[in-house]
Amino acid sequence: MPIKILDQKVVSQIAAGEVVERPASVVKELVENSLDAGSTQITVEVKGGGVGLIRVTDNGSGIPAGEAELAFNRYATSKVNSLEDLESISSLGFRGEALPSIAAVAQVDMVTCAAGESAGDFLSLRKSVVVDRRSEGRAQGTTITVRNLFRRIPARLKFLKSPTTENSHIANVVSQYALAFPEVKFTLFIDGRAVLRTPGSGRLIDSVIEVYGPEVARHMVEVKNSDSGWQGGTTTSPPVISGMIGSPTISRSSRDYLSFFVNRRWINSRMLAWAVEEAYHGLLMQGRRPIAIINISIPPSEVDINIHPTKAEVKFQNDRPVFSAIQRAVRATLIDLAPVPKIEEVATAYATPPAPSQELWTSPAEKTSPATSPPVAQQVPMISLPALRVLGQLSSSYIVAEGPDGLYLIDQHAAHERILYEKIKQQRSHQEIEVQGLLEPAPFEVNPKQDEVLKSNYESLSEFGFSIEPFGDRTYLVRGVPALLNNKDWAGMIRELLDSSSRENKGDWTEKIITSLACHGAVRAGQILSDDEIRELVRQLEQSNMAYTCPHGRPTVIHLSSGQLEREFGRS
Ligand code: ADP
Ligand code: MG
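# magnesium ion complex -> structure
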């Protein structure tokens, strides 16, 4: 096909497609307009999954009769005048795209009446063109009715899900705004049934009761805003965090119960979800997600809301203060939520680092009852070591020991690797990985490739005791590491791990972490060990059921039997 300029109608439909993806997008745009108009009552009615009908009625400012038609022109808005205004947007809308986009893909009727006007103004649009206009009685406010969405765009219709699914997206949009604006009375009717009604009392808990039900509401607490710990510099003001979070006794299996608002604009953000989840670290079971409703109040100039067609994502000028403000506020709220026994455990784990020697040398056998782990030597006699008598250390790297049948030379690093490998596996299966909080959170920079791997594998790392959070562009903040890497080169370990990974499956990746942890946690060759440490290491190695090889498969022990020795010395 030769290059040609698209017909204006096609252009407007393509552009509309960015704003109006599905029925719920229409609801979102119309509700946002009603909120911008200062409404205290908003009623949403939908039929046929929103494809048949969407009607939003409000009691807001209304549109002056002289401007009603203009509202349907592209880039027509009453909310922004100049480029500078874009810097300080406090309204939800500002692009003037919603009404024209909706009118491009559906039939639209509007009745609106502004303050001081005696009658309302009725407008009817078909294919973006006003086909009817008359005055109609109406109290102050606006009603917009959208019918036959996407009827003329079969390709779009085809991509819609079942009416039930579309309804649930719509209900979610209305619910989210009901949570963000508890002072507004929301009512949602789906196919004639009232499915949501909020009282508009101004109290968030009242919206929570309606949206999530009384059972969840009973376990929700108000977020404590702890901006005292703010360290964001003097030029910016702290983000103020408000909202409610669920106590750790209630959790969900998905992130659907995490809601974020920036200046009460509903947004999606993985980073913010992460901040909340980090604050719950150690308090929820593996795979469980907290319930939280969080609003971030921040000067409009510090957030760019213009990066996404439906404004569903925003970009903070600086992610770090927002991340830590949320994490701190949520954490402080949880700590206040006594009695939650787990919190104390976590807090002490962070406050008092275990003595490293103890960590290094505690035998796994001491922690398990004999009933669950019979002496390994009896199970697999072929590959475990006999009881050894330590003779000493050689070249600060090898342990020399005597057994019932000759001499044993043990590679101290490889042997310790084997011991730690089994210990980590065991601790992990009991979810007992010990964590060491760092005294100062340490910044950790990664390259783009490492960044990719880290992003998608963060969760499995936290399973092993790493507490890592994003800290701006390709920088992370490490707050805790597995206890066995205390005073070790944990940064080197993470880097090596990230560099060595390509597209592994979960099992391989987990195995890699365990091997890597064991390797970096183990004593090095060249490290002088005390007699006690040597004996403890040998004792633990004796208990391993794979004592002769390290996790990489290299030998840990060289055994010279009495017979071999005699042969070597020419005695036989
Ligand atoms: P935007 O919200 O970005 O300004 P829209 O296309 O959504 O653009 O709306 C265009 C204009 O129509 C708004 O700027 C506002 O002046 C007016 N408007 C739309 N809906 C309403 C409403 N429910 N109440 C009052 N005014 C409205
Ligand atoms: Mg709008």
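# post-check
The pocket of magnesium ion (ligand 2) is lined by residues 29, 32-33, 93, 98 (CB under 6 Å).
Residues 163-180 form the longest helix (18 residues).
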